[in-house]
Amino acid sequence: VQLQASGGGLVQSGGSLRLSCAASTSILSLNRMGWYRQAPGKQRELVAVITSGGSTVYADSVKGRFSISRDNAKNTVYLQMNSLKPEDTAVYLCNALNTGYQSSWGQGTQVTVSS
Q1: Is residue 100 predicted with pLDDT exceeding 90?
Q2: CA-to-CA distance for 69 and 19, rounded, in angstroms?
Q3: To 10 degrees, the CA torsion angle through 8, 73, 51, 31?
């Protein structure tokens, strides 16, 4: 699966951004898709995932602020990020897991939140 991420940028604290991840295959054929992030000097961490059945999981640090959704017709998953904080600054990476549990990664998109 090829993944194309977009939507990052520079935003002030309290602002919003929406990330998009377009897949090269039907996202309904995938086990799940999600977003991870990696800040400088830190380990990659899960931000949010959405399963083929529509269930969602969020990191505690983003609950109530971020929302993951999908458009099946466009084979695209979105991450709506509201009330952004400087600690949300990271490279955000899109991930897909197929039914054979093989993982694919898109290129990262930089999100920078200024205080």
Answers
A1: no
A2: 10
A3: -110
